[in-house]
Design goal:
The chain is of the alpha/beta class and 222 residues long. The protein has a single domain, classed as Vaccinia Virus protein VP39 (Rossmann fold, 3-Layer(aba) Sandwich), CATH 3.40.50. The protein has helices at 3-18, 23-29, 32-52, 73-80, 92-104, 141-151, 165-175, 187-196; strands at 61-65, 84-89, 110-113, 126-132, 152-163, 199-207, 211-218. The longest helix is centred in the N-terminal third of the chain and has 21 residues, at 32-52. The chain binds S-adenosylmethionine (SAM).
Amino acid sequence: MNFESNFDEDFNKIHRKRFNLHYIEEKLMVSPIKKFMLSFLELKVFKSFIKSCNSNLTGKNILEVGCGAGYGIEPIYRSFKPKEYFAFDISLKMVLLSAAKAKKKKIPVNVFLGDVKEIKLPSKKFDIVFVFTVLHHVEGWRDGLKEINRVLKPKGLLLINEINSRSLSWFERYLKVFHPKKAYFTWDEFNQGLNNAGFLILKEYKFLKDLGFFLCVNRRKN
Ligand SMILES: C[S@@+](CC[C@H](N)C(=O)[O-])C[C@H]1O[C@@H](n2cnc3c(N)ncnc32)[C@H](O)[C@@H]1O
């Protein structure tokens, strides 16, 4: 009997069930396709937002929420040379993958296990928060946005992308990839969630209508 592979299989099953991750989605998340998408689409759009605002974001405190397999760590580190860099995910498996990547590339990032609805970090710590397609897994996504706002400094920036309820319905119908219904949002609901959490949307871009990119500023003044 191969205990090691049984353990891996059980670990993967528990992991997917607990974190609302479908088998196909998890495969995509840890694949080179995701690495390519993150570097050549998602981060590129965010960088174009930053460029159009003439902001210099080098040497700041950065947080990445829901870092997954850690494909954002190297490009974010190399692009922004952060003073302090933290990244977390609710899944132990993803935290381990991210930490291993950072170690291999010798990138000084503090990777930890955490939940966006209750971020175990002090208020007003970060200049920039990155979130790459995480909140459509989170039933309390509105509370997650409020927590992100709490850990951001006044006038700090949030760079977030998400998929909306229309694309989630499509995944459900045609690929049988399910997400929690309470984490479905339309763009109007998402904009309202950002506003209620204390953000002002500075830039917005929709890729194929259903993948939305947002640059937001924390409206808090102190
Ligand atoms: C679609 S994946 C995206 C991963 C990564 N951001 C990327 O783009 O490669 C969603 C990630 O969100 C994480 N996640 C789900 N719920 C979370 C929560 N409440 N707090 C933090 N991370 C969460 C999952 O474990 C998963 O790694």
